[in-house]
Amino acid sequence: MHTILGLYFSGCFSDEAVWGHQHVRYEENSLATITCHYASGWEDYVKWWCRGAVWSSCEILVKTTKRVSTNGRVSIQDDTTARRFTVTIRNIRKEDEGAYWCGIEKAAVDRGFQIEVTVFPGTRLLVMCLRPCLNSGPPDSRASTLCTAPPSCPVV
Question: pTM, whole model, 2 decimals?
Fold first, then answer.
């Protein structure tokens, strides 16, 4: 029987082979970067990222089968010198929220830890353009004013 020893510290979880943050938060439509660390001796093993709350039935999205492996918006890269692998999710969406696992493939029993990913709504940026106005009449007249927007501003 295999037992995983769980250690909790500074918001991180560890099974002694692989560890990282338990919970990460990203703004919607941003680039999510999740880093998973591993102990010495695991450099030559395949690393993976899977989705699902249950370890035994999670769906593996990417594996480190080459320098950078990509599957749609998700990629994984292993830095064996720093003993960490990085998962990126481009344009993260609300539907990407949920439980994931960072893992290391090992004959008989993979090693890993669970990460909860939360996606919060992006902030909307309101851009106001000031437009220089040209008066079409004499300086003291009440003639109508024609305003033109600079090329970088949309005309509303």
Answer: 0.70
Q: Which has the closest alpha carbon to 113: 58, 72, 33, 31?
A: 58
Structural domains of the chain, ranges and CATH numbers in brackets: 7-120 (2.60.40.10)
pLDDT means over runs of 10, the chain (156 residues): 29 70 96 97 96 93 93 97 97 97 92 96 61 51 46 47
